[in-house]
Amino acid sequence: MRHVLSYLKPYMKWMIFAWALMLVELLVELWHPLLMEKIIDDGVMKNDLHVIWKWGAIMIATSFLAFASGIANSFVAAYVGQQYGFDLRKHLFEKIQSFSLFNFGQFSTASLITRMTNDVTQMQNMVFMSLRIMLRAPLLIIFGMVMALFVHVKLALILVIAVPLLLVFLIWMMNKAATLFSRVQQMLDRVNSIMRENIAGMRLIKAWVRSTYEQQRFTETNESLMTRTMTVLRFVETITPVLLFVMNVAIIMILFIGRNEIHAGSAKAGEVVAVINYATRMTAALSIFTFITMAFSRARASAQRIAEVLITTVDIIDEEQAEGTTIQKGEIQFDCVSFRYPESEALALQDVSFSVQAHETVAILGETGSGKSSLLQLIPRLYDVTEGTIKIDGIDIRHLKQEHLRAAIGFVPQDLLLFSGTIRDNICFGMETISSEEMIQAAKDAQIHDTIMNFSQGYDTVVGQKGVTLSGGQKQRISIARALVRKPKILLLDDSTSALDVKTEANLLQALKTYSCTTFIVTQKISTAMEADVILLLKDGQLLAKGTHKELLKTNELYRKIVQSQLGKKGLDDVETSAQYDYIERK
Amino acid sequence: MLKHRHNMIILKENKRTVKENIQTLKRIWRFLSGQKGRLAVVIWMVMISSCLSLLGPYVVGKAVDTYIVTKQTEGFVSLVATLLFIYLALSLSTFLQNYWMIGIAQKTIYSIRTQLFRQFHQLPISFFDQRKSGELMSRLTNDIENMSQTFNSTVIQVISSTLTLIGAIFVMLSLSPLLTAVTLLIVPMMFGGMRWITNRTQKRFKEQQQNLGELNGLIEEVISGQKVIKLFSQEKTVISQFLIKNEQLKQSGFWAQTYSGFIPKLMNVLNNLSFALIAGVGGIFAFKGMISIGVIVIFTEYARQFTRPLNDLANQWNTLLSALAGAERVFEILDKEKEEDDEAEALDLPVVRGEVEFRHVSFSYDKKQEALRDVSFLTSPGETVALVGPTGVGKTTIIQLLMRFYDPDRGHILIDGYDVRQIKRFSLRQHMAFVLQDVFLFQGTILENIRYGRLDATDEEVIEAAKWANAHSFIMKLPNGYDTVLQQDGSGISQGQKQLLAIARAMIARPSILILDEATSNIDTMTELAIQEALARLMNNRTCFVIAHRLNTIQNADRILVLREGTVVEQGTHASLLKEKGFYYELYHRQFKKEII
């Protein structure tokens, strides 16, 4: 809570100003009963119409003064609240932008969004409220208590005992309610997640005829949501009656004792009336307290969720003395690299070593889950190695600035991510200085230019949620163009050609040869792998074999099996022929 | 003239929505059936507590007048006892009204949720195909939550505010009609002021909501695209994009909050004004001997009792309206046409051999463009049928019709000689199992997800199926094995592994008809080999439909249906189709030739 509130510091002056304005309002309100007393005592009783006019006018004038300061308070409070929310969101977003992929794994997307929107709004509202009404209730109670003590100490003692006791009771109840509320929230999340799952997976549910099963599952959670909600709400609803009862009993006691005091001659009638009057006002203020504690405990939960993001330690940061050098060639060397995903036990990569010359093409083959994508992700430091080192142009990548490292890399991830915007925006993503010719060249090489030109808006076609829906293959080719337009020194293709038909893929691979970069291709297809300079064969995170197609055919049994499964027996027989093709092509 | 007509239209629209609101209220009322007795008790309690809360101060005043000011002693103890009783009854009735109301509200919400959920299962698939699930979901959760909160408090508040208002006016009128008229002077001021404010706030709130939505969208996009942003070092760019949206949100939020902040201030000033008016005007009246001073004192108290419920009502009105709008949206879904019921004499097939026939089937999703045109074929039980053709030719549509997610516009689909429309849906689908394009896994353990194929399968059977699907070895490598909990988005395991699980799930179902929709396109060749082997065992004695892009995986099919633009252009075995040298030949060679070179 403290951490999140510390962002209020710059607005301290404004907050004090807002409180001062609120105080003006409150004073007017407290002053009015005294004014009325004057009208009655000095005006009506003494038959002086002039006095009635005078004080009546003053009352109206001060009402407007209170109104004016209230309106001013609205502006200031809204200003502080909104500015505070703005700052919180900004800090959160900047923090999130510094997150590594591991950090992202610690929070779900949905929860990050809620933290940045709902939770911030919650804090913002609390600040807004506290500048306007929150202090009102405590002030009214304190003022009331002090005034009552001034009027008659013995009678006021009843209030001095009852009110703090009630406050303790209130806070205890609210704390208890907070835990109950969080249990309701949990259940609500479960109910909603079952609903969401059912909406998304309805086809499956229908096909498997699992309606009854799902409804049973839903009914159970829905029922316990109902009972939990009822429990907590009923619990909270006991507060007001208890509060009212205690205060009313206090009033009765004041009446009772007050009467005895009057009989004993130690109190005047007016004093008893005044203390009762203050007691009623305090009762009203106390019920506002319920509302305040509720808002406060909600804000506290939000503050905690916000703080969790803000205090997360980011695990991949630039070293202070990171070298400013940029990558020139693109030689890559893996030296005994082992890698384990954070919070996972098994190694995704184990003791992998190899080196690749600049401008070579490397194909990575292996089963699902053998570590192909993991290997690729280590190169741009999406994750850091657990053991060993990766060197590019002889420099450990941890000594490079992330920005410089990534600027030299064109990465086409497996999951197709395009941003909403035009195709041009997407291809030129992050490269403001790209000319149209360069963009079109990249698109041509990625085999997507013709498709784009078929759209009525060409490169200005809007894609994403509000625009054209692209097929998987089209998205793949646009992300390839996005990588190519940067003229990378290192190109990483993570199974990025899976949705392309064979002919397009061949053209693409042909076009890639004109780029002078080191290329890694994760692939399932032998036909693609055959064209590479080096093939890395992975199994269970280990580098099983490394070599050209011909070498592996000779030395590796597994590789031979894969070739056979895809190309048939012919594939094995054709070793000679394919070697000849290679030869012809190189010429 | 023109302006006049314009007003008319607005008036009409308002009337219409009022009518709609009343209808929605009536429907909610119907949900309360069985609880109406309780609701009556609650309303009764509210009346009692409202009366008691008006009575309390009156008795206190009387006590002060008679026993404090005049020092009378007779009957004081009994009056204190009465007072004690009133307050006890007040607290008790307040507690009970809330206690019961919460029960009523939550039970109602429960039954609305249940009905909605049941409705989902009765809606045709086209309903889900036409909507984004995320949007549907967020709307529903918000709407229901909104209704729930409104139910809990609003009903009681509205009733008690109205009662208090009436009571206060009544007492005031009986004390002094003239002073009441003076007090009521502030009512038009209040309405005018409220209107001025809400006219402004509504626009601002809408703007704020829109800006918040945009910001939300940006955050969502940025977070899900984080990998690309990192790879392209675009953190600074997105931060500056974010700051623009953040600034917009701040601006609209500032005005929305400022304007809405005026409301309590307005109420305050009106309260103070009425206080001053009563004191001033009342003073003059008293001066002229028209009223007593005591009346002024009571009046100031009741004037407060009068503006507070008015303010409450104005506040509650907005929440009530938004809750009603939410309820309407929920009802809209409840009113959507359900999937056609099974025919009355629909059959329950205990055993299916697996003979599938399409007879001149035509179908279109949008009634404009035909997805299937006059498709006919017959498969014998146990055959493996491969559907081949470029994307969008209707392969998936054939499967959708076979499972009766949609019904054909023309023609018939027969299974074992029965029209599928004569078979109960659950019976039809029970004999089928499938692996669809996008694997959908439920939040739960791997064991539960595989068992989804047949709920009464034992753990051993699940493991057996996983072994067959070659999923066992990767499952055992996971930290918790079969008890590993999968998240809803299936994160934690790869796409290929998800498919293995889906295959295991299909295996355990022991279907008569098996459907594989591009099931193997994401699995590496080595795993695929093993799966082909396992599938061969599974396909044995089962009718099997396979959709696959890679032609080498379907060469062993008994029958290949070649589709082109919604019609079957060729059918036969791999060898016979190659001999024909038609479209299949062309497709095959385009793909296979390339792989050799």
From TrEMBL, chain A:
Residues annotated as domain ABC transmembrane type-1: 20-298
Main location: membrane
Pfam families on file: ABC_membrane, ABC_tran
ABC transporter domain location: 332-565
Keywords: ATP-binding, Cell membrane, Membrane, Nucleotide-binding, Transmembrane, Transmembrane helix, Transport
Membrane topology: Multi-pass membrane protein
SUPFAM superfamilies, A to Z: ABC transporter transmembrane region, P-loop containing nucleoside triphosphate hydrolases
Cellular component GO terms, alphabetical: plasma membrane
Family annotation (CDD domains): ABC_6TM_Tm287_like (cd18548)
Sample GO molecular function, one term: ATP hydrolysis activity
Compartmental location: Cell membrane
Name of the protein described by the UniProt record: ATP-binding cassette subfamily B protein
Native organism: Anoxybacteroides tepidamans
From TrEMBL, chain B:
This protein's record includes keyword Ribosomal protein: no
Domain annotation ABC transmembrane type-1: ranges: 40-322
ABC transporter domain: residues covered: 356-590
Membrane-topology annotation of the record: Multi-pass membrane protein
Alphabetized UniProt keyword annotations: ATP-binding, Cell membrane, Membrane, Nucleotide-binding, Transmembrane, Transmembrane helix, Transport
Transmembrane segments: 39-60, 75-96, 154-172, 178-197, 275-299
PANTHER family assigned to the protein according to its UniProt record, in alphabetical order: ATP-BINDING CASSETTE SUB-FAMILY B MEMBER 10, MITOCHONDRIAL, ATP-DEPENDENT PERMEASE MDL1, MITOCHONDRIAL
Protein name: ATP-binding cassette subfamily B protein
Species this protein is from: Anoxybacteroides tepidamans
Organismal lineage: Bacteria, Bacillati, Bacillota, Bacilli, Bacillales
